[in-house]
Design a protein that fits this description.
Blueprint (H helix, E strand, L loop, with lengths): L3 E4 L2 E9 L12 E2 L4 E2 L4 E3 L4 E4 L2 E8 L5 E3 L1 E3 L9 E8 L6 E10 L11 E8 L7 E8 L7 E8 L9 E7 L4 E5 L2 E6 L9 E9 L13 E13 L1
Parallel strand pairs: 5-8
Antiparallel strand pairs: 1-2, 2-19, 3-9, 4-5, 6-7, 7-8, 7-19, 9-18, 10-15, 10-19, 11-12, 11-18, 12-13, 13-14, 15-16, 16-17
Length: about 240
């Protein structure tokens, strides 16, 4: 892959890349997300559900013998952060419902409640929570996760993202707007919440929740596969 690319008439240079070679996550770039409870149905992130194999990051999803839904998740916290730029990955989605995969960022102080996303935001570059409706989702969250929480989002339907192939998802984050892309085509452009000016770290996750519609136990285990992640900074 070339170190420099052109996006929207702007030149960007490579600052981070992982092609998931080898047989484990690169600990200089990633760590496992904390093994904690997630969402509203008691699912948990588990280190055992993350694998690197055949040039792919594999984020698995399954049900433990005690009935607990578990799934894999990694993040670049403490290893790589960046504000502004072009953030891209290529993924192959899961086949069943009940959980979703995501490529997203945690930027600045997301918990700060000040009516603006400038000091902190969760930026969901892509999520597959709309799998049951043949859709994918972009979103931005700010003002914490309590009563003051706010968000804007855009769902994209009917674009064959679950056709069994690999698809690319990207965010162009500038000082004035967020621009989202699927397979190189712009799908959403917004500056509504105010543009975060703080660096963020990357997250690649799978997690269970009611948003993804019912779990189908007989269709598990399942997984999300990530071919690569690349990040660029404007020259």
């Amino acid at each position: 892959m070339a170190d420099n690319i052109i996006v929207g008439g702007r030149e960007y240079t490579l600052t981070f890349e992982d092609n998931f070679t080898g047989d484990s996550i690169d600990k200089t770039k990633w760590e496992y997300c904390p093994e904690s409870r997630r969402q509203d149905i008691g699912g948990r992130w588990s280190n055992s559900m993350t694998e690197v194999k055949d040039g792919n990051l594999i984020l698995k999803a399954s049900i433990r013998e005690d009935g607990t839904p578990i799934s894999g998740a990694i993040r670049s916290a403490g290893r790589f952060t960046q504000a502004y730029g072009y953030f891209e990955c290529r993924m192959k989605w899961h086949k069943t419902t009940g959980f979703w995969g995501a490529f997203w960022m945690m930027c600045g102080d997301v918990g700060k409640v000040d009516g603006s996303a400038v000091s902190g935001a969760e930026i969901d570059i892509i999520e597959s929570g709309e799998r049951a409706r043949d859709g994918v989702n972009h979103a931005i969250h700010w003002d914490g996760y309590g009563e003051a929480h706010k968000s804007v989002s855009k769902s994209i339907y009917g674009t064959n993202q679950y056709d069994g192939g690999r698809h690319t998802y990207a965010l162009q984050w500038t000082e004035s707007e967020y621009i989202f892309y699927i397979d190189g085509e712009e799908t959403w452009r917004t500056s509504e919440p105010g543009i975060c000016n703080q660096p963020g770290y990357l997250k690649l996750t799978a997690e269970f929740g009611s948003w993804a519609k019912p779990i189908v136990p007989e269709e598990l285990p399942d997984c999300v596969r990530v071919d690569w992640v690349r990040v660029y900074r404007r020259v």
